[in-house]
Specification:
alpha/beta; 7-stranded mixed beta sheet; 15 helices; 2 domains; binds nicotinamide-adenine-dinucleotide; 6-stranded mixed beta sheet; globular; Aldehyde Dehydrogenase, Chain A, domain 1; Aldehyde Dehydrogenase, Chain A, domain 2
Length: about 475
């Protein structure tokens, strides 16, 4: 059994109790982590506050070098971190279309380097005989980071690196379901960062540590990635000291396929952007609208790909899709599929949990589904694709937008100019043409409507970890 510690004020910290982390491929425990409590959070916040004055005044070049050094640690320890990510999330080491633990750790390395290289230059608004006005970007203080279970290490890195780069200190709490790789990263990072700059604590949900972070007077900003209901609760709790917030929340991304596509080629791409990581990615394609003229053949091709996918333990070579991360999520996915079936959906592939050990669910393609069915209106966050028929383009844009979420959306067509015009009509933070969910460390990413507040990545994301100070120097 592997064991991990919390990192608080530069120390490896245990709690009075440990709890088990489950490998969803077997349903069995593979690691023990500390069952932290609010007292550990208080200690972590105190350590982060104590470290802030020095860290925020550390020379920019030194902070930059230390962030690059963190990327080096990820690189050196990549095999171990990949194993941990696979064991705790179930995602394959390789995975469908190369989306797996290798991409998670590789992405974490790339994001860290790119973020280290970002700058926060002083902007000069006016410089004349009367006065000079400069706009400075200053760190906020202590950033509290709360992460979900689907991409635990990568999302932790997305939170930590811009926070540190801008001069903040951090207290991070991973999802209770997937704390192992993040705790390990905290242990590793402690070997290069000054004490208290990065603190990582683990806790079971019932301990209320997430809630305590959101209301903690010693935390200046919360960056949260997770579900929309939790995001709402955090926003309410954060009001006490007017915390700054970045909320990356749920998505129910629509893809719209125009009749001019190359059916075989597009089916493979659609399958990958829907089913990688078993659909457990915020910006996976989750509702597919297909033109009537190609509806049946495209559905059949997607179902063929779903039946051919290699589902199994992510540690085994060649596995494309692992289990669903937890049993509760699998039950929810199953409930949505049964609801669709009861309302007349045709199950073209899958449609059932795999019996035996682990939380497996067969990749499922549903035809003859309509808006108004739960599997279309709600975020399934699992290996299920509802395919919806349309015939009028204006009508389908309206239907795609008729959802409280607004994370991503895509248009699939050979006519790129027309597709771009349609994409701009989608109400979402990111829109893609002939692609879906593709992100990169220098392009902003975030949700509109109830998919979130603020963006991550690039200089737009970095600036969210700062406040503005305007400096006016009178010359006459
Ligand atoms: P979740 O909201 O259940 O939990 C996320 C985190 O919040 C966990 O660490 C949890 O312990 C903590 N938490 C729970 N209740 C809390 C509270 N009241 N106050 C403070 N913290 C609390 O989400 P999840 O099930 O782990 O993740 C799946 C969801 O995350 C999906 O909806 C998915 O779309 C979303 N997500 C969004 C993005 C994005 O960038 N927009 C990325 C990944 C995942």
């Amino acid at each position: 059994m592997e064991r991990f510690s919390m990192t608080i004020g530069g120390q490896a910290v245990a709690a009075s109790r440990a709890y088990a982390v489950i490998n969803p491929a077997s349903g069995e425990a593979f690691a023990q982590v500390p069952a932290g409590e609010v007292a550990h959070l208080d200690a972590a916040v105190a350590a982060a506050r104590a470290a802030f004055p020095t860290w925020s005044r550390t020379a920019d070049s030194e902070r930059q070098a230390l962030v690059h050094a963190l990327a080096g640690l990820l690189e050196t320890n990549m095999p171990e971190l990949m194993q941990l990510v696979t064991k705790e999330t179930g995602k394959p080491l390789g995975g469908l279309n190369g989306v797996g633990a290798g991409m998670e750790v590789g992405g974490a390395i790339a994001w860290t380097h790119v973020t280290a290289d970002l700058e926060l230059p002083v902007e000069v608004i006016q410089d004349n005989a009367e006065a000079r006005i400069e706009v400075h970007r200053k760190p906020l203080g202590v950033v509290g980071s709360i992460t979900p279970w689907n991409w635990p290490l990568m999302i932790a890195i997305w939170h930590i690196m811009p926070a540190l780069r801008a001069g903040n200190t951090v207290v991070l709490k991973p999802s209770e379901l997937t704390p192992a790789a993040t705790l390990r990263f905290g242990e590793l990072a402690n070997s290069v960062l000054p004490s208290g700059v990065l603190n990582v604590i683990s806790a079971e949900r019932e301990a209320g540590v997430g809630e305590a972070m959101a209301s903690h007077p010693g935390i200046d900003k919360i960056v949260f990635t997770g579900s929309t209901p939790t995001g709402r609760r955090i926003m309410a709790s954060a009001a006490g000291n007017l915390k700054r917030l970045t909320l990356e929340l749920g998505g129910n991304d629509a893809g719209i396929v125009l009749p001019d596509v190359d059916l075989k080629e597009v089916a493979g791409k659609l399958f990958a952007v829907t089913f990688h990581n078993n659909g457990q990615t915020c910006a996976c394609l989750k509702r597919l609208y297909v033109h009537d003229s190609i509806y049946e053949p495209l559905c059949q091709e997607l179902a063929r790909l779903a039946r051919a996918a290699v589902v199994g333990d992510g540690l085994h070579e060649g596995t494309q899709l692992g289990p669903v991360q937890n049993d509760q999520q699998r039950n929810y996915v199953s409930e949505l599929v049964e609801d669709a079936r009861a309302h007349g959906a045709r199950v073209l592939s899958g449609g059932r949990a795999r019996p035996g050990a682990g939380y497996f669910y067969a990749p499922t393609v549903l035809a003859d589904v309509t808006d108004g069915m739960r599997v279309v209106d709600e975020e399934q966050f699992g290996p299920v694709l509802p395919v919806i028929r349309y015939s009028d383009i204006d009508e389908v844009i309206r239907r795609a937008n008729d959802n409280p979420n607004g994370l991503g959306g895509s248009i699939w067509s050979q006519d790129l100019a027309k597709a771009a015009q349609l994409a701009l009509r989608l109400e979402c933070g990111s829109a893609w043409i002939n692609e879906h969910g593709a992100i990169q460390p220098d392009a902003p990413f975030g949700g509109v409507k109830q998919s979130g507040i603020g963006v991550e990545f690039g200089h737009y994301g970095l600036e969210e970890y700062t406040s503005i100070q305007t400096l006016k120097i009178m010359k006459s």
